[in-house]
Amino acid sequence: MDMEEEIINADDEEISYFESITDYVWSFLGFVQNNGWYFLAFIILLAYLVPKLWPHYLKWLKQRAEAAYDADIKKNPDLFKQKQEELQKARIKFQEEYEKKAKIALEKQKEKEKKILEEKQALLNNGTSGQSINRSQKSKNSKPDYNPLMGSGSGSNYRPPRRSACSGGGCG
Length: 172
Known about the structure:
Elements: H1 2-34, H2 36-75, H3 77-126, H4 130-141
Helix pairs in contact: 2-3
């Protein structure tokens, strides 16, 4: 008999817990129904004011951070010197990295030029291929006969008629 009472009590607790959750949900929905226009007005006001006030807030945060930094420097001048030294070291490091990359790029460019020069010399040494080099240079330098952006030919360019005060032949 005690087991049955415990099962009944456990079921009542589960039901009462579920009912209390639904009661909270219904009371919240009732509150929203009664005050919905106020919520809508508040959301519209936020949507209007946030973009207007956000830059001022960011400016205020920046000024606050600068003031805190200035106060720290005023309390501890060695901190300023230390940060300046760190900044200078970082600049030197980046400059060295840039110079290394520039040297590597220059070496690659020289290798490419050297390779191209060797290829040209090899072609010239073959004897018969010397004519092919000249032909390829001529084809690069010469203008093609047809350019689709220029039209079909040189004699068919359109020119609009002259404008005159007597358009339509009424002057004379």
